[in-house]
Structures are given as C-alpha cells and as structure tokens.
C-alpha cells in the first residue's frame, strides 16, 4: 500500500528549498541540506521530488517566471512611451505598481529567477530581461531629436548597467522581508535610478 504524502511535509520542503535556492542558487544548493532544513530525511524528500530539477520547478513554477517577464515587458513598453522617466514610479504608474506588488508577493522566487537560476530550466530569464532593458535604452536614444542626442552609450556599458539593476533588485529583496520596507526601498531606488538612466541616455 503506497504511503500518503503529507501536505505539511511538502510545505516544509518547498519553504526550505526556496530559502536554499535564493541563498545559494540552483547549482550550489544540495538536497541533503534542504532536507535537513525541512526536518526530513533525504530519502523522504525524494518521495516528494525525484530530483533537484523537479524541486526547483515546484519552487519556481514556469507561470511565475512567465508573469515576471510579462510584467517587466509591460513596464518596458510603458517607459518607451514616456518623455520623462523619473516620475514613473509606483504611486503614479499602474505598471510599476503591478511589478512592485509581484516582487513583494513572490519575493524568493524573484530572487531565484534573477540571481539563482543558473544551471536550471529557467536560466534564460535573467539574460532575456537584460536584453529587453537594453533594447528599451536603444529605442529611447533613437527617439530623441537628432540635435539633442548625447554620445552613444556602448552596448557593454548598458548590459553591465542593467545587470547591476537586477542585482540591486535582488539585494533589496534579500535585505527585507517586510512589505513596507521593500516598497520604501524600491521607491528610493527608482527615484535615483530612473533619473540617472534618463540623464545618461540623453547625454545630460
């Protein structure tokens, strides 16, 4: 007679795995450590998830990754229509608010997708986001009147800039688990980041 899998045990395993993947990344996280943190044997963990990839997929389901990409692309499209970026923060932008709400609700999965997915089936998510943000920068520069464009920003600089932006998002989500603190940190970050990026691309 097959043994019954307990919801409470599955919940503990998923919580421990989320912490481990967010802290160490998919590649470095070990199932033995996750099992110990969840308070189960490694053999018992395998009854719930046959391998690390299956556990990762349960912690970060593909719909969560797809939603993150959709929200960021919606935000990119919004910024692409604005003449001024610095005021496009959560209080004044529905798309910024939706993205921030998602980061709060899916704090650890977002950290994993942006900083801990290397070696997993979702390792492509971070490079896609950097690519989309770099294309936004290119479109912004192209939209400026010819006489007002600054010197072109090298692609390598933009890629590094947006990679650092994702690192800051991760740092905020790792540093805070209180919703109010997360929101305040992102508002402060967006205020200077959007203004600085706009000035860089416009050559001001």
UniProtKB/TrEMBL annotation:
Transmembrane stretches, start-end: none
GO MF, one annotated term: DNA-binding transcription factor activity
Keywords from the named record: DNA-binding, Transcription, Transcription regulation
Pfam families linked to this entry: TetR_N (PF00440)
Entry keyword Ribonucleoprotein: no
Coiled-coil region: none
Known DNA-binding region: 30-49
InterPro entries cross-referenced by the UniProt entry: Homeodomain-like_sf, HTH-type_TetR-like_transc_reg, HTH_TetR
Keyword Transcription regulation assigned: yes
Domain annotation HTH tetR-type: ranges: 7-67
Protein name: TetR/AcrR family transcriptional regulator
Species, as recorded: Halomonas nitroreducens
């Amino acid at each position: 007679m097959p043994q019954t899998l307990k919801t409470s045990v599955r919940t503990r395993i998923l919580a421990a795995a989320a912490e481990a993947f967010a802290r160490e990344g998919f590649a470095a996280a070990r199932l033995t450590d996750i099992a110990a943190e969840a308070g189960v044997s490694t053999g018992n963990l395998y009854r719930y998830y046959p391998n690390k990839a299956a556990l990762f997929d349960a912690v970060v389901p593909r719909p969560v990754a797809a939603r993150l990409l959709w929200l960021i692309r919606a935000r990119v499209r919004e910024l692409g229509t604005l003449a001024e970026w610095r005021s496009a923060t959560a209080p004044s932008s529905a798309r910024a608010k939706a993205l921030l709400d998602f980061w709060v609700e899916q704090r650890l999965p977002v950290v994993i997708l942006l900083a801990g997915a290397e070696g997993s089936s979702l390792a492509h998510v971070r490079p896609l986001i950097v690519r989309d943000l770099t294309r936004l920068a290119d479109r912004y520069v192209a939209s400026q009147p010819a006489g007002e464009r600054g010197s072109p920003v090298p692609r390598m600089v933009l890629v590094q800039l947006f990679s650092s932006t994702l690192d800051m998002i991760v740092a905020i989500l790792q540093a805070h688990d209180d919703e109010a603190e997360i929101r305040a940190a992102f508002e402060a970050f967006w205020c200077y980041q959007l203004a600085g990026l706009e000035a860089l691309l416009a050559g001001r």
